[in-house]
Amino acid sequence: MPKVTKNNHTMTVPRRLSDFTATLSEGSKESESPNNAPIPAQRGRRRSSLLKNNLRDSIAIKDLTGEEGVRARKFDLDGDGLLDEAEQAMMRYDIDGDGNLGLEEIHAIVSEHLRAKNNIGALRKVIAGLTCFVVILALSNLGTSLASAILVKETAADQRTSEMRIIGSVDVVGTQSSAETFEALEMDVETRRARRALVVDSLKANPFGEHAHRHLARSADCTGKKCDKDIKFDTNYMTQDDAERMKAKCELGRVVNVKRSFPGGSVDTKSLCRSGSNIVIKQIEYLYRRSSSVLKCRKKTYMIARKGPRKKQGKAAIRKNGFDMVVISDGKDTTFDCDGKNCYISGSNLRQKHGEPCNLNHGSDDCEAGLVCVQDANDVTSGRCLSDWNNGIWYVDWVNHKCVQDCVGGPNCGGDSSFWEEEFATYQLCCDTHLSYLTGGYKQCVPDLDFYLGKGQDCSNSRTCRNDLVCRKSALNGSDRWYCV
Predict the structure, then answer these.
(1) For the chain, N or C: smaller number of CB within 10 Å?
(2) Are residues 252 and 190 in the same domain?
C-alpha cells in the first residue's frame, strides 16, 4: 500500500477498493462484541433506507447480462441485489472494470464534483441578476403608476379639442402630429338650389359689391372669358358642431383636411388648415323675439312662435348662434356660412382643377373658372372638370324656359352667359337638371334641336354628318344636293 505523509504523520492509503474493504473487515473483527450487530449490517440498513427513497433510479442486478452482473455485484455494497444511484455512479467511474476505484478514477469523481460546484455558483449569480432586474422593473412600473396618478390630478381633457390641458391653465400637455379629416356632406337638390338662389339674388342686387361668394379674378395680364369671374357657390355642408371642432383645431395650428365624395365612387381630400393658416371669424348674433301667431324671420333676427299652455306662451326658443368663418391656407380660401345648425361650405379651395372629379348635376359650380363638368367616358354617373368651350356651353334661359348655348347669332344661342349662370357641357344635362318638367322631350327644351344635331344641313361636299345622322341625296327631282337626315 502507498504511504502519504501529511503534517509529519504517515498513513497508508489502499490502492484498491478491496484493500480498503479488507481493512474495514479487520477493524470490525477487533471491535465485534456479542451485544453489537456487525457494522456491514448497520450500513446495509442505512443504504436500504436511501434506496427506498429512490427506487425509480435503482436497477436489478439479475436483469443484467452475465458479465455486467458480475461487475455490478462488486458494487452492491448492501447486498440487496439492486444498484442504487450512488452504486451505479461508482460502477460508471470504474473505467478498467476490475470492481475497484483507483486514484485516477477517484480524481475524475472529484473533478466532476468541483465542476458541478462551479456551475451551481454561476447559476446562483444568474438567478441573483434576474431577481435584481425584476425588482428594477417593478420599481419602474410603480413610478410610472405614481406619475400617471399625479398627471391625472393636475390635467383635464378638453372635450372640444380632445387635448390634455393643465387645470387652471391654457397650456396643452398632449399634442397631435397626425392630420384629422372631416367629411363634407352633399346637399340635397332643394337645399342646393335655395342656397344658390340666395347668392344670385344678392349678386343681382349689388353686382359690383363685396360678397362672401364672389371673387374677381381679373388682373392686368389676364384676358379671356375664364378671367371674367369666379363665383364660389356652396357645394357641400356639415353640421355646425363639426365646423366648431374644425375651427378649434385650426386655431391651434393643427393639420385639418376636408373630404368629399362624388358620384361614381370618387373621393377628393383638400387641406383646410395647418400651422400658419389665417382664420377670420364673424360672429352672427340671432335675436329671439316673442310672437303670438306669425313666424317672421330674417338673417340675424329670428322671431319664434309657439303654441301651448299659457305658462309657456311667448317663451323664446333656445338656439345656437351662427357664425361666418373664412380659412385661408396656401393662398386658397374656404368659407363656412353657419346658421346655428348646419354650415354651408364654399371657396376656391373646393373648386376642382382640370381632370379632377365633379358632380354632373352641379354643372360648372364644382370646377374652377373656365372649366365645366364633362361626363366621364368610362362611367356615365361621374364627371371630370375639363375645358369644353369648343363644343359650346349650355345654360338655362329662365325667361323662355329653354336650354341655350353660350354664344351669339345662332338659332340656339342665348348670348353670353352671366357670371352667376350654372353651365353644362351638354344640352341633355342642362335639360335633365333644371327643365325636366317640360313635356315634349329635348325638342321642347332646346330652341332648334334639329339644327344643333345637323339634321337637314347640306352635306353635298363632305358627305358626312354629325351625331347619328346619315348624308342622303335630296328626294327632289333634278336636285343634286345631299342633306343630313
Answers:
(1) N
(2) yes
